[in-house]
Known about the structure:
The structure holds 2 protein chains of 2 kinds.
Chain A (H helix, E strand, L loop, with lengths): L41 H34 L3 E2 L6 E2 L9 H35 L14 H25 L8 H32 L4 H31 L2
Antiparallel strand pairs in A: 1-2
Helix pairs in contact in A: 1-4, 1-5, 2-3, 2-5, 3-4, 4-5
Chain B lengths: L14 H6 L8 H6 L4 H31 L6 H6 L11 H20 L1 H15 L8 H23 L27 H30 L12 H32 L10 E2 L2 E2 L7 H35 L6 H15 L14 H13 L1 H15 L8 H18 L1 H4 L2 H7 L4 H30 L5 H27 L19 H31 L62
Antiparallel strand pairs in B: 1-2
Helix pairs in contact in B: 3-5, 3-6, 3-7, 3-19, 5-6, 5-7, 6-8, 6-9, 7-8, 8-9, 9-10, 9-11, 10-11, 10-13, 10-14, 10-17, 11-13, 14-17, 14-18, 17-18, 18-19
Amino acid sequence: MGILSPTLTRYPSTLRGGEGNVPPVNGGGDDGHNSGGGSPNYGERLRRARLGLAIGLIAVTMMFVACTSALIMRKGLPILDPETSRSATDWLPVNLPMTLLLVNTTILLISSVTMEFARRAITRQAALAPVKSIPGISLGDEKSFPWLGLTVALGLSFLFGQWMAWQELAARGFFVATSPSSSFVYVLTAGHALHLFGGVLALLYAGVTALARRPIESRRIVVDVTAWYWHFMALLWIYIFALLVVAR
Amino acid sequence: MAEEVPVPDPHDHAEPHAAAHHHGPPTSFIRKYIFSIDHKVIGIQYLLLALFSVFVGLIMSVLMRMNLTWPDHKWPLLGSIFTLGAPGGQMSPEFYLSLVTMHGTIMVFFVLTTAPQSGFGNYFLPIQIGAADMAFPVLNMLSFWTTLLAYIIMLAAFFANGGAPLHGWTGYAPLSALTNSGPGEQLGADLWITSIAIFCLASLMGALNFITTILDLRCKGMKLMRMPLTCWSWFITAILGLLAFGVLLSGGILLLLDRNLGTSFYVPLVVVNGQVMGHKGGSPLLWQHLFWFFGHPEVYIAILPGMGVASQLLSTFARKPIFGYRAMVYAIMGIGLLGFMVWGHHMFMSGMSPYSAFAFSLMTMAIGVPSAIKTFNWLGTLWGARIRFYTPMLFAIGFVSLFVSGGLSGPFLAQPTLDIPLHDTAFVPAHFHLIMGVAAIFGIFAATYYWVPKMFGRMMNERLGQVHFFLTLIGTYAIFMPMHYLGMAGQPRRYSQFTEVHYLGPLLPLNKFITYAAFITVGAQLIFLFNLLWSIFKGPKASDNPWEATTLEWTTATPPPHDNFNGRIPVVNHGPYEYSVPGAPGDFTMQTDPATAAAH
């Protein structure tokens, strides 16, 4: 996980089973429901949350792997043409709205960048939080740019763009059941959109916890994990887009 | 020699943590027993769900046996409950098929997946690795309630218009993909698929939680190779679930689209009742591939925890270290890995290239190797031991017995040339009921008799347990051994009636025998139910370590406190199976005992 965590602070690694030097005093079991102030175990919780996310992403990958193999198999299937009695295919090449999809892709990639800025900003804030709490220390009010809000807006724009792409597909005569090719376009884009919407909800949750004055370290975990999830969704979209273009 | 590490004093630097670390024990009834995030409560909730489900499934199997043996008999009570499925008390063929479907689905998903992994795994995994809870307790609660939602939707299929689906637990298309292919294939099938999809989500959440917990929350000294084999089996099972359930979820979504939006993933051009359906070009084989890519790992999800429990118990009650601990770990991994490469052996009948069939056949027989390693090691553990024959041990030995007898027919079925004549006969149900059905159930029974003293602080009755064991062991063999013979004699599976078929007439006495054996075996489970309920409330009090076992759950109070170890996180110095170690002071060495020179 070291690669994934360019944090300003170093947390002592206390819990690696069997290898750590410090007896673990916390067996865990807080899952963000720990609002006790000054808790020293945010580092552990962050690592655990990232690990959980990585494992969860394996499951997401398997879902899309299954869809991909279904697509490859279905594309290769011949059907019997009733008129000529020869083998034919019912796979109609989909006329994808390329310009719109490229715009959507750009929006999603930019949102990934803003997400990363948001992640780094909150990492910095979380690192400075203990210093700020020392009486008499003032670091000045850091007025940070609302990267999270921008990411949410870009994410929603991407989803709206995908919805427009569906409208365009329908206008070009490709509905869900028109051809297996168009069925897969809808299934894959909808599957991705649902997952991305989950990311938007997580960001909104992080925003709500900011209003609820939860400790910043706790919010940082939500933002950090969502950021990695968000980057994964950007990668996943590029994969899906490439797949739809190649296996049209 | 490892340096002795003192157990941290709970009061030592406890103050900064005390407020922060544990969610304190909940006080309200709802947070404590219903929407609890305590892994122990969630484990018991899962077990109760499985206990209810197993009796629902058993009742269905009894109904199926009744219909097979006395197809013309009228059962007035049945007629009054299922007015459509059993008009006048006589079961219709469609009703029989819906029983086949629901029995299989409920048993596989809500009993064999739920009890050993989500139930006992939830309760004992954190304790056995020295953690206070699962990695994500709220997610844990969510996965139980999602499972329950899936279960309610599944049962609702019975009461939907047209009844429960007919397509079996494997949901083969196009039968499952068309809404007019049978009475149960209307709303009932939609509910069935939706329930399975929700169950997939719940299982993915559970798998994620199990894997993170094992990787991140082991206490000091609990190296991976010091984990009890139960933890190893839960770990590998969770990995299988993580990789398999997503595939079924995707496949299920495509199936729902075929049914409701007119797509053609699985449905070719078909004519139903003279009516040309709108689909064309889809492949029923596509569903079979996606389903069995999940389905084969799923049977290991059912059986692997049983293997873990059997290993644990054989070692404990033989008072010997498990024979070949590392080999056992690698064998579990090997079974898990190979389990993903053999799904095609369910499809020899469906049509596949002989070259693919050859590869799948070879891989399938290769699973015999890690399975034989495990069996050899179990027998090696028992060899020359002074065995303590308590009820949990009886069931663990029964598990080995059933695993071997059910497993031996595996290499038969692994060969396409033999599978093709046997596949659609009673031989296959005989095989999988022994090895993944009853063997896994024996693992669950063994775990129940073994751990109820820890969970509820009361011992279960030994005498009743022994009666239960012998009736169940003999009963299940009496049911499923003759079924192999029925299969070889050509009795087809899934047929609701065969009394009219001439060549099957001579098999009727054997079928009657199986049915009576089933009645007795199901009846014997009431002994278990009584023993369980009576013991939980009235049984003799259990000590903290009644079996003189070594793993961490036996170091803590009975029943374990909210944070499992009362604020003291254990430090592990020993492997999980140090029994009768030469030079050791006692018969057994707890994992938390101070390290000694002899231990290394």
